[in-house]
Design brief:
2 copies of one chain form a homodimer.
Chain A lengths: L1 H6 L3 E2 L9 H12 L16 H18 L5 E6 L3 H12 L5 E6 L2 H10 L4 E7 L21 E4 L1 E2 L4 E2 L10 E4 L16 E5 L10 E6 L16 H6 L9 H17 L1 H22 L3 E2 L11 E6 L2 H13 L2 E2 L10 E4 L6 H18 L1
Parallel strand pairs in A: 1-13, 3-4, 3-5, 5-8, 8-9
Antiparallel strand pairs in A: 2-10, 6-7, 9-10, 11-12, 12-14
Helix pairs in contact in A: 2-7, 3-7, 4-5, 7-8, 8-10, 9-10
Chain lengths: 363, 363
């Protein structure tokens, strides 16, 4: 089935859930028949068996290796998506009378700060709302008494990405849902990292969290058990039945990243894909973008064609060419090309070929 | 692979995640290769595509047909497990100065009431804690001013099940995680039903909720968006990226239930399995149970052998015979035989055969 697909040259530019590596899909499909020769489906095994414990251990070990984390950090796999963390982060780290700082640099970061305002006092450290979040603010202002500073490291909708993280004396928290494991960075700059898995590291339905333990236990609020990071750490991500299959797919994807050469290689591929796309964009004035050049995302290229009819025609041609998920986010419009870890360079090549031929025909 | 398994006579008595119908596993496995001839994996499709919308619509329509619900009810598929609902129910339905009534009739119901106490005043309407939750209390006492009454309809750990639901003038809420869709009942007795999917209706990682709309919007608390039932209803379960694959497996399982004859047929099979097991138990005084006869669960039979060495030997023989998941819950011990929708009668027959031969050898 899959081979046929490749012959059809289907190119998956989905923004998330998005393309996954073929070996991951093959193993996942097989595990639904017979998981690790248990004779049972991965969907039928108990979560407190050694079988699943091994899956979870492997996933956690991969994360720790890829991020080069020491024992000050814990790795959790929890139910939900990043949106769940918009609530769970302040619930665990912010009391009603305390302050947290948020960068308002994208639609998701903005949602995060709005949710946090239910739990304490929010200071906007910087905002790019004046230009519809098309750049990353460089000057951050916030009180040093704030419990933490929250940023969204990559903005899927607007196509911007932090290339230099702020240095802070207070804990830095990153929503890395859309650029996690796409390159080597200094993860230790962060005290808490969270990511919905469905872009670079697996299937929808699970959150990966990395928590520096010293930030916990500092607030007075009584936290509901299922939301309590400390309790999840004590239970080793097994407080309740976890999303077994989604954790399994994350484990497979993490293993694939390591086998392919780790974050250095992921970063090289990411740069290669993004350069090809953005160089083409820059060479074709027919395509426009509002995104500040220095803040362009390697994950999501967001651009447009001024003539709306031509833009619709381009999107139609993308569809006919087997390009999936190229339409911009509903509130932004335009064109969005998402280029996550599993996207082959050949897919970006196919996209830039179409961009070039379309521009030369219609410019 | 699977055929080989059947030849090995593997019998899956797991308490959850548990056995799923073979056609469901086959379709799920295929969909990971190529979902509905899209050329994409179910793990790679966008959740806002018509492809996934159809999956979600089909799942919701199945639930409404199976439960015979009218438009007063909404069906949601949300991230998390039943434990998430222990918090989410009171967060949505109980203000700090109000009262909710809970039946303390099992380990999970007890956890539910403890979580609810973070959000308001909890009255224990009845408790079976005096006999380690081995029976269902029949006399319930609670103020008519309580916002709702919460029960756990089947107690997976203790092996008890409500066979007649209480009649109330206040909203009745049921955690049906472990007996949902196992028989025809009057679902309209309930104002809210929730169930983690991983027993009778799918894979771990998704909650199914049925909500009578008139219970919402009656409290003052500011509810975090991702926890807000009303907002999820407005967003049609698509507020954020849902657990796509888990919803898909639920849809397949619900369709299987309907194709097999619906809840009447599920109830017939359930009775048949449970009768075979309990009749054998009653005929063999060698096996003991503390569970009150009239409250026995059709889903989970919990019993034990007085001599611990013999019990361990029995569990060993179960293992050798290819019986999975027969060891009792860690806090209860003993033997537990879970018999969910997808368990064939032949598996129960294999179990009672072993029980009989073991008893005749060791009694």
């Amino acid at each position: 089935m899959r081979l046929q697909v490749i012959e059809m040259k289907l190119h998956n530019f989905n923004s998330g859930p998005s393309i996954l590596p073929l070996p991951v899909l093959e193993q996942a499909s097989n595990a639904i028949h017979n998981f690790n020769n248990t004779g049972l489906s991965i969907l039928e095994i108990g979560h407190r068996t050694s079988h699943f414990q091994e899956v979870l251990n492997d996933a956690i070990a991969s994360v720790k290796r890829l991020m080069q984390l020491d024992d000050q950090y814990e790795v959790l796999f929890l139910h939900g998506g990043a949106t769940t963390q918009f609530m769970q982060v302040p619930m665990n780290l912010l009391d009603d009378d305390q302050i947290a700082a948020y960068c308002d640099n994208g639609i998701w970061g903005n949602k995060a700060l709005k949710e946090a305002s239910l739990f304490g006092n929010i200071v906007v450290a910087a905002s790019s709302a004046d230009k519809k979040h098309t750049y990353i603010p460089k000057e951050l202002v916030f009180p040093e008494t704030a419990n933490y500073l929250h940023i969204t490291t990559n903005n899927t909708v607007e196509g911007t990405q932090w290339h230099d993280y702020p240095t802070t004396t207070i804990p830095l928290i990153g929503d890395m849902s859309s650029d996690i494991f796409s390159r080597q960075i200094n993860f230790k700059k962060f005290s808490l990292i969270y990511a919905g898995a469905q872009k670079n590291m697996g299937a929808a339905g699970v959150n990966m969290l990395v928590i520096k333990k010293d930030i916990l236990g500092k607030i007075q609020r009584r936290i509901p058990t299922i939301m309590n990071y400390q309790k999840h750490i004590e239970a080793g991500s097994l407080m309740n039945t976890p999303p077994v299959f989604a954790v399994y797919v994350s484990m497979l994807t993490l293993k694939w990243i390591e086998e392919e050469g780790g974050l250095v290689e992921m970063g090289r591929r990411s740069k290669e894909r993004a350069s090809l796309l953005y160089n083409t964009l820059d060479s074709l004035p027919f395509f426009k973008t509002y995104v500040a050049k220095e803040d362009r995302s390697e994950m999501n290229a967001v651009f447009f064609i001024e003539d709306e009819n031509l833009q619709n025609l381009f999107l139609d041609e993308c569809k006919q060419a087997g390009f999936i998920g190229v339409k911009g986010y509903r509130t932004v419009g335009g064109i969005r090309v998402s280029m996550y870890n599993a996207l082959p360079l050949s897919s970006v090549q196919a996209m830039v070929d179409l961009m070039q031929s379309f521009a030369s025909k219609h410019a």
